[in-house]
Design the sequence.
């Protein structure tokens, strides 16, 4: 009996062994966004940033509840001493920069601590709305704030976003913009396919801005804020030549106010389409030699060196008269199919009639070289 009781006590002691101290759950805090950008397209400001994917500990982020957008608007201080708030005096920065941006250039940007104290929440993207706000790996948000104060002074607008999961993350980097009044989209845009490329032209905008951006997209696809213009720098004229891949393309043009970020531009023009294909003909044969044979004319010519050569076309012109008085009376192709050799025998000439022949090279896009003509020849009626 004592032995059984001892075994029972040992079992109780083992079963009730001391456990480790409980650890508090690791907080899941979203990592702060660091690539927030702001751009202006016509009368709206567009924010974009990478989709939040990590926690502050570097783990994958799940369960986003919402992303809040915060905004702080700075008004240009009222000028003192009677200075015109729109004037640029010696010592100010580059006068080619738009004046509202110049006027804010000497005012320090807001620090994050100050932003957190002064900013107000504009809106939030709830978890159910995140798919609609997603473009690729980016999120976007559009805002329509006033671009000036009630007395006409420009403003500088600062944005930050905050991601919330089970806990609230920190403010993102602060994206800043001085919005500008931009004109309507360029009008009368045309796109004409030429051998050198697609030539675009449009009407100048008023008032004139820094230049223009040209956007090329597949047909039916509208450019968004992530679409890069095909011009490396603002186009300063109202025409631009693009050399796109062969195919059908859609073009839009915007008026642009700044050459450096943040991008500020008008809305896009109405789309125009152009089909670009090879419009450059291959070289012509160097020469064509006619050889008169019994009841036939043999033609020989030098091959054309062209990577997309499809073949050759032979034309025949018949003449009225003889010798120096002969006059051309008509030109027709001699064969329906393209020739892939550099010789051809015409067995259908009328005997005693003067003819001359031409050979042209044609490429796979249907472009044809100039015709190279022979002298007038006659197949005699008698051998």
Sequence:
């Amino acid at each position: 009996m004592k032995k059984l009781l001892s075994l029972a006590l040992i079992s109780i002691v083992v079963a009730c062994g001391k456990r480790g101290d409980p650890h508090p759950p690791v907080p899941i805090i979203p990592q702060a966004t660091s690539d927030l950008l702001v751009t202006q397209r016509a009368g709206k400001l567009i924010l974009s940033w990478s989709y939040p994917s990590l926690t502050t500990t570097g783990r994958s982020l799940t369960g986003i509840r919402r992303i809040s957008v915060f905004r702080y608007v700075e008004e240009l201080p009222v000028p003192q001493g009677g200075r015109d708030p729109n004037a640029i005096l010696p010592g100010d920065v580059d006068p080619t920069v738009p004046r509202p941006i110049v006027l804010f250039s000497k005012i320090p940007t807001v620090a994050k601590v100050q932003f957190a104290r002064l900013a107000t929440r504009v809106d939030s993207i709830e978890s159910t709305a995140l798919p609609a706000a997603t473009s690729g790996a980016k999120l976007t948000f559009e805002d329509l704030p006033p671009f000036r104060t009630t007395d006409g002074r420009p403003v500088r607008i600062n944005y930050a976003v905050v991601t919330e999961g089970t806990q609230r993350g920190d403010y993102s980097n602060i994206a800043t913009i001085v919005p500008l009044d931009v004109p309507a989209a360029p009008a009368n845009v045309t796109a004409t396919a030429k051998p050198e490329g697609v030539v675009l032209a449009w009407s100048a905008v008023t008032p004139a801005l820094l230049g223009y951006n040209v956007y090329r997209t597949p047909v039916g696809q509208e450019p968004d804020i992530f679409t890069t213009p095909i011009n490396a720098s603002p186009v300063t004229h109202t025409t631009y030549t693009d050399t796109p891949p062969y195919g059908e393309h859609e073009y839009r043009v915007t008026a642009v106010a700044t050459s450096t970020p943040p991008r500020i531009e008008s809305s896009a023009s109405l789309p125009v389409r152009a089909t670009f294909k090879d419009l450059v003909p291959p070289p012509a044969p160097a020469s064509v030699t006619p050889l008169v044979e019994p009841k036939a004319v043999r033609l020989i010519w030098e091959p054309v060196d062209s990577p997309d050569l499809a073949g050759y076309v032979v034309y025949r012109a018949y003449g009225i008269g003889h010798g120096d008085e002969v006059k051309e009376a008509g030109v027709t192709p001699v064969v329906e199919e393209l020739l892939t050799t550099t010789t051809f025998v015409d067995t259908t000439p009328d005997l005693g009639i003067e003819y001359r022949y031409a050979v042209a090279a044609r490429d796979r896009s249907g472009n044809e070289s100039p015709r190279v003509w022979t002298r007038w020849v006659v197949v005699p009626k008698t051998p």
The chain is about 5% helix and 35% strand. The longest strand covers residues 309-320.
